[in-house]
Amino acid sequence: MELSRSSGCVAQESSESPSRPNTHVMVYLPPIGTHIAAWNSKTGLLPGSAGALRVSSVRLVAAIIAGKLVAFVSRHLNLGGGTTFPGQVTRRIDPRALEKMTARLEQGCIIVTGTNGKTTTTRMISNILRHAGFKPVHNRSGANLITGVTSAILNSSSLLGQPRGDVGLFEVDEANLPRTLAETHPKVVVINNLFRDQLDRYGEIDYVAGLWRGALQTLPPSACVVLNADDPLVASLGKSTRARVLYFGIEDERYGNQILEHAADSKSCVNCGARYVYDVAFYGHVGKYACPVCGEKRPLPNLYAAHLMLASTSGSELSLSTPDGPLEVKVSLPGLYNVYNTLAAAATGFALDIPVVAIKQGVDTFSAAFGRIERVAIGDKMVFLALVKNPVGFNEVLRTLFLDGLPKNLLILINDNIADGTDISWLWDVDFEALQGKVNSVVISGTRAEDMAVRLKYALVDTAAISLETDLDKALQAGLTNVGEGGTLYVLPTYTAMLEIRALMQKMGYVGKFWQD
């Protein structure tokens, strides 16, 4: 799929109304009559003469000015990064703002979703696009609701709604995929995985898969869908779309298991309901599977990891088999889950006919997103920050940390705010039993620290190694005190806890603001 000079995003009237913001913003619009002709000649925003100014165009300009004003005030008053609320205000004034602005992107849009790895995968795609000479408009901060996507293009556009980039690249919350596709009409949709996550928000994975299936049915044959062949539910979506499908996966079985782990979700055939039989399971329900009853099986991937070498927390080396031949890449991110993120990003590059050299450069030079796999030096010690938010993801982080077999010092931060999911029963599906005899110390904090302490007790982790500290500042200091000179404190937070610990380290002068990353 060549990145043509025509737009891949078509503006279309939305049937959904945005939510009402909880703040009223009054915006003064200066007289524009004298500028109408100039606007028309520069942007084509207005059809014909100055007298043909359309109400929809005026509404968009007003919406953009209001949104930019809210973003400016938010950042300068330290109320936030302006990554969500400006989009909410903009959509309130002009519900079609996202459609109108993405329609002006010269190279169309790329949408990325999945339970785990959205931010990392999207940032890696962005790096690949930049090495290929494109200028992506990207919700880099990870604000992935429809308001966050709107804020991203708002912040990257002129007052007339003309984007300063040429391709839209947006990670999207799982439940927001249908609405985002309806408003952006993307050229490429990337789906990395589907795991049980925040049941109070999303419900069961079959419900989410149904939402995605319906959304993909709306794509035209000119679009491309990039899917994880090793995830049964995700791979099955390839049968539900007229778009071209490109599959990615792992062939090297050395880091797999013969049996599914406890946290596996999609164990039954999507066609007949029989239990899948796995030749190898990489993590969760992701692996090489087949149904012994109806014959449904893993599709052969178009791009796959033929050989991989994991180096504990330092990264990995991959030998990829691609539609254009073998490709050797080095990834600075550890773990099998980041191998899949890399495969998804590389497959997106091939879906867009990006040169192999740009794909390799984009992967080799990539550094992790804030809080995902982030290393922060504090004095003569290092903080290793890894986001955890569901059983499969937490298990993979633990597995990656202990690949070298060395004991670790941990700081676990568990919150139950809306963005984390208020139901934290998922902690009982994490294999904390793997920590037995492998930790020097574990400091626990967050709004559900007591629940985490109980879970570790039942996992038979040495209680002498566990301490609970409700104050985050004191918890961080306690964790660092447990680490020797030149050592590393491994911090494992849920989403809002990750933002809190980064805000604390920002106040201490060790990291920048998350929206500036």
What's the SSE blueprint?
Blueprint: H1 36-43, H2 55-76, H3 85-93, H4 97-102, E1 109-113, H5 118-131, E2 136-138, H6 146-155, E3 167-171, H7 177-184, E4 188-191, H8 199-202, H9 205-216, E5 224-228, H10 232-236, E6 244-250, E7 277-283, E8 286-290, E9 303-310, E10 316-322, E11 325-331, H11 336-351, H12 356-364, E12 373-378, E13 381-386, H13 391-401, E14 408-413, E15 439-445, H14 449-458, E16 466-468, H15 472-481, E17 488-493, H16 495-507
Parallel strand pairs: 1-3, 1-4, 2-3, 4-5, 5-6, 6-9, 13-17, 14-15, 14-17, 15-16
Antiparallel strand pairs: 7-8, 9-10, 10-11, 12-13
Helix pairs in contact: 2-3, 3-6, 5-11, 5-12, 7-9, 11-12
What descriptors fit this protein?
Protein-Tyrosine Phosphatase, Chain A; globular; 3 domains; 6-stranded mixed sheet; alpha/beta; 9-stranded mixed sheet; 517 residues; UDP-N-acetylmuramoyl-L-alanine:D-glutamate ligase
How does this model look, in words?
- With 517 residues, the chain is of the alpha/beta class.
- The chain has three domains: 2-96, no CATH class; 98-364, Mur-like, catalytic domain (UDP-N-acetylmuramoyl-L-alanine:D-glutamate ligase, 3-Layer(aba) Sandwich), CATH 3.40.1190.10; 373-516, Mur ligase, C-terminal domain (Protein-Tyrosine Phosphatase, Chain A, Alpha-Beta Complex).
- It is built from 16 helices and 17 strands.
- A nine-stranded mixed β-sheet has the order 2-3-1-4-5-6-9-10-11, sandwiched between helices. A six-stranded mixed β-sheet has the order 12-13-17-14-15-16, with helices on both faces.
- A hairpin with a 2-residue loop joins strand 10 (316-322) and strand 11 (325-331).
- Helix 3 packs across helix 6, helix 5 crosses helix 12 (356-364) and helix 11 (336-351) packs antiparallel against helix 12.
- The longest helix is centred in the N-terminal third of the chain and has 22 residues, at 55-76.
